[in-house]
Amino acid sequence: MSLLHIFEFECQLSKDVILCKDLVVGNKYKVILTTGNGFFWVSDKDIVLITGKIMQTPTMILWEKKLEFDIVGEKLTNYIVLKS
After folding, report:
1. Domain boundaries, the chain
2. How far is CA 3 from the centre of its chain?
3. Burial of residue 17 (number of CB atoms within 10 Å: 0-12, 13-18, 19+)
4. Which of 19, 68, 82, 84 has CA atoms 20 to 30 A from the CA of 6?
5. Count of C-beta atoms within a 10 Å radius of residue 54
6. Neighbours of 83 (CB within 10 A)
7. DSSP code per residue over 53-81
8. pTM
Protein backbone atom coordinates (compact mmCIF):
# COMPACT_ATOMS: atom_id res chain seq x y z
CA MET A 1 0.00 0.00 0.00
CA SER A 2 1.33 3.41 -0.99
CA LEU A 3 1.49 6.27 1.51
CA LEU A 4 1.21 8.80 -1.31
CA HIS A 5 -1.99 10.86 -1.39
CA ILE A 6 -2.97 13.19 -4.24
CA PHE A 7 -4.97 16.40 -3.88
CA GLU A 8 -6.63 17.72 -7.01
CA PHE A 9 -8.96 20.66 -7.39
CA GLU A 10 -11.97 21.13 -9.66
CA CYS A 11 -12.37 24.74 -10.77
CA GLN A 12 -15.89 26.03 -10.14
CA LEU A 13 -15.79 28.15 -13.34
CA SER A 14 -14.29 25.81 -15.94
CA LYS A 15 -14.79 22.41 -14.23
CA ASP A 16 -11.15 21.61 -15.11
CA VAL A 17 -9.35 19.36 -12.60
CA ILE A 18 -5.86 20.63 -11.75
CA LEU A 19 -3.03 20.06 -9.31
CA CYS A 20 -2.09 22.33 -6.42
CA LYS A 21 0.74 24.00 -8.36
CA ASP A 22 -1.76 25.27 -10.97
CA LEU A 23 -4.28 26.90 -8.60
CA VAL A 24 -5.19 30.49 -9.50
CA VAL A 25 -5.54 33.17 -6.81
CA GLY A 26 -9.16 34.36 -6.60
CA ASN A 27 -10.69 31.17 -8.01
CA LYS A 28 -12.90 28.74 -6.08
CA TYR A 29 -12.32 25.00 -6.19
CA LYS A 30 -13.88 21.74 -5.06
CA VAL A 31 -11.31 19.50 -3.32
CA ILE A 32 -10.69 15.97 -4.66
CA LEU A 33 -8.55 13.52 -2.66
CA THR A 34 -7.19 10.19 -3.86
CA THR A 35 -5.48 8.19 -1.11
CA GLY A 36 -2.56 5.81 -1.50
CA ASN A 37 -4.85 2.78 -1.43
CA GLY A 38 -6.95 4.17 -4.29
CA PHE A 39 -9.84 5.58 -2.27
CA PHE A 40 -11.30 8.51 -4.20
CA TRP A 41 -13.13 11.27 -2.30
CA VAL A 42 -14.94 14.38 -3.50
CA SER A 43 -17.02 16.70 -1.37
CA ASP A 44 -19.67 18.65 -3.27
CA LYS A 45 -20.27 20.59 -0.06
CA ASP A 46 -16.84 22.11 0.56
CA ILE A 47 -15.50 24.90 -1.67
CA VAL A 48 -12.13 26.59 -1.08
CA LEU A 49 -11.14 30.08 -2.21
CA ILE A 50 -7.48 30.59 -3.14
CA THR A 51 -6.43 33.76 -1.32
CA GLY A 52 -2.74 34.02 -2.23
CA LYS A 53 0.54 32.15 -2.32
CA ILE A 54 3.50 31.88 0.01
CA MET A 55 6.39 31.13 -2.34
CA GLN A 56 4.74 28.42 -4.49
CA THR A 57 2.32 27.14 -1.84
CA PRO A 58 -1.27 28.37 -2.25
CA THR A 59 -3.14 29.76 0.74
CA MET A 60 -6.86 29.14 0.95
CA ILE A 61 -9.92 29.55 3.10
CA LEU A 62 -13.00 27.38 3.35
CA TRP A 63 -15.37 29.51 1.32
CA GLU A 64 -18.54 27.48 1.46
CA LYS A 65 -19.59 24.53 3.55
CA LYS A 66 -23.11 23.32 3.08
CA LEU A 67 -24.25 21.48 6.16
CA GLU A 68 -26.78 18.69 5.87
CA PHE A 69 -28.53 16.78 8.60
CA ASP A 70 -29.76 13.24 8.04
CA ILE A 71 -31.35 11.42 10.96
CA VAL A 72 -33.66 9.03 9.09
CA GLY A 73 -33.03 9.86 5.41
CA GLU A 74 -34.69 13.29 5.28
CA LYS A 75 -31.60 15.31 4.12
CA LEU A 76 -32.27 18.63 5.86
CA THR A 77 -29.96 21.56 5.09
CA ASN A 78 -28.69 23.93 7.76
CA TYR A 79 -30.99 26.64 6.33
CA ILE A 80 -34.10 24.50 6.88
CA VAL A 81 -33.04 23.51 10.40
CA LEU A 82 -32.27 27.11 11.44
CA LYS A 83 -35.59 28.38 10.03
CA SER A 84 -37.58 25.80 12.06
Report:
1. 6-83
2. 21
3. middle
4. 68
5. 7
6. 7
7. EETTEEEEEEEEE--EE-SSS--EEHHHH
8. 0.70
